[in-house]
Amino acid sequence: MKKHFLILIISLPILTGCNRTKYVSDTKEESMLPQTSYADTLTKHIKPFKPELPTIGLLMFNGVLQSEVIATSDVFSKPTKDGMQLFNVISIAQSKSPITTEEGMHFIPDYTFENCPTITALFVPSAYDMYAQVHNKTIVDFIREKNRETQYTVSNCAGAQLIGKSGIADGHKIVTWIGGGAQLQRDYPNLKVQNDSLITFVEDGKFSSSNGNLASYISALNLLEKMTTQEHRKFVESYLYLDRLQNWKD
């Protein structure tokens, strides 16, 4: 009889714990967090499109390098210290069909070229093989058209080839992936291509560019500071733990 009574007592916390409707942490640190229902956790981080906010457009196409899309969304989607949304961050592609990245993941774009809203800044990423994109008149025309309304146009890595093809940055400084500058200059002699072995990021008027990959964080953070404040940039850097990445050692 005593043995059965002991089993019942041990089982009670397990049974009651499984029926809790709110998350309660077992650690002291997490128990200080606001307790929200499971349903809230599914929706509270969704940021609505607010027409009054600046809109950051992330161009996507098949074969795109994920890091160059994620870096920008990482930086501009972060709120202020007070939790305020500062930007709309949207992805744009030629159609609503899922985009397959270089890394094999599938992203569904928010907008197409036809229904894309007015954007404040356009980020043009890259792929390892840009032939299809550079020879896609629809993509090139979209970049050219959107550049008429943007305050800022940014390329990362071989996205500079699309900028060169569109002709929108003729006469401006630009940098591309490490090792790609000589070919970029031959293909688009009107660009002022910088030495990619020495320069990671360059800005010239409304145009800026980087070597791409994780250097895409540099172009995003630089523009973030221009559009907000240095204080907010530092807040986002700390939010992303970039200081730990910079100070990391083997």
How would you characterize the largest beta sheet? 7 strands, mixed
Beta-strand percent range: 15-25%
CATH class: Alpha Beta
Q: CATH topology, anyone?
A: Rossmann fold
Low-confidence stretches: 1-32
Helix share, percent: 25-40%
- The CATH superfamily is identified as Class I glutamine amidotransferase (GATase) domain
Q: What is the CATH-assigned architecture?
A: 3-Layer(aba) Sandwich
| Widest sheet: strand ordering | 5-2-1-6-7-11-10
Task: Give an overview in words.
By secondary structure, the chain is α/β, with parallel strands linked by helices. It has a single domain, classed as 3-Layer(aba) Sandwich (Rossmann fold), CATH 3.40.50. The protein is 38% helix and 15% strand. The protein has eleven helices and eleven strands. The protein has helices at residues 2-18, 28-31, 38-43, 66-76, 131-134, 137-147, 159-166, 181-187, 216-227, 230-239, 242-246; strands at 55-59, 88-93, 99-100, 106-107, 111-112, 121-124, 152-156, 173-174, 192-193, 201-204, 207-210. It has a seven-stranded mixed beta sheet, sandwiched between helices. Strands 3-4 form a two-stranded antiparallel sheet. Helix 4 runs parallel beside helix 9 and helix 9 (216-227) packs across helix 10 (230-239). The chain is globular. The termini are far apart. Mean pLDDT is 87; it is low at 1-32.
Topology:
Layout (H helix, E strand, L loop, with lengths): L1 H17 L9 H4 L6 H6 L11 E5 L6 H11 L11 E6 L5 E2 L5 E2 L3 E2 L8 E4 L6 H4 L2 H11 L4 E5 L2 H8 L6 E2 L6 H7 L4 E2 L7 E4 L2 E4 L5 H12 L2 H10 L2 H5 L4
